[in-house]
Amino acid sequence: MSINYIEFTLQASGFGCVNTNGNVNPYTGKQGGDDGFKNRIFAKQRNGKMYISSNCIRGYFFEPDAKGMMLSNQGGFNNNKSDNGELVISSKDMPMISQKIASSYLGLIRGYMLTEKGGDAIKRNSPLMVTDWINDKGEPNKNEVMVNHLALDENGKKESNSLFYQDTWGDTLYHGMAVLSIEQMQFIEMDNRLGHQAVRFSQNPKKAKVNDDIETFKVQLIENLKNIGSRCGMPESKCDDIDVTYGRFMKKDMLFSYPEEGILLNNAALHALILETKRRLDTFAIVKSKGFVRTDKISVSMRSTLTTEGFEQVLMPDTIPDYARFYASVEENNEA
């Protein structure tokens, strides 16, 4: 069976609330409690069950790599005037920044968008889908009194009343899912004609010889993938199989076929990324001052489609499954 998706079914446990809804009441959608007081902090709840949002999970999952990118809505490597003192990257540096991100686990799995005024965005969609994690254990303790010594009023001055009330929780037990799409993982687009360029090598390719830059990027990408594979226990012989191919490719089974310039990851490279994702999920935890959560167990299913039943399989570092190939080189299509 050709594998299109990797599905992770997760169970996690902990104590307390690690992802609040702020002072927005989840039952009414309005700020503050039913009693009219606004100094309330609510747990995220849906149908009476507390949950951790997918955005919160992804934020902590990628946090070790992403600290320099967490200002993406403010700095975000935007090419602007830096009127507010935010991080600014010049157009000249944009290729270098895109290559660094595109060759990393963070860029390949989290995705990114690098924007600049008057230019096309450099972006990659994330191949990792994460659901909200739903808690099935316990009920909220309402109106726990908390103190925020850093509380500020709407004018930015120290709030005279630093007391507030918060929904808290006891022991928790969560269930959730994560899914990796092989199709979105395996190709790094260099062509901006279809509006989804993921890496750039020159602002003006006609005036620059970019072949050397592309080869340098490939070497760095392969080295990073081999380091990931080695960290996840892939034997040296399997790490040596990790490779990427640069060229022109066409997506299979498209009504209007259009060749795209890009870089295709082989199955060994995909396997390293999948093993690293599993490793990070195995060790995932959120620790707050009044609560924590950590994963307890994970099962992995291989799927050809999300609508059919998959088969559970232990991911082995020395065994590379038959991952689907969604792109064929132009030369292969011509030979066919």
From TrEMBL:
<protein>
    <recommendedName>
        <fullName>CRISPR-associated protein</fullName>
    </recommendedName>
</protein>
<dbReference type="InterPro" id="IPR049889">
    <property type="entry name" value="Cas7fv-like"/>
</dbReference>
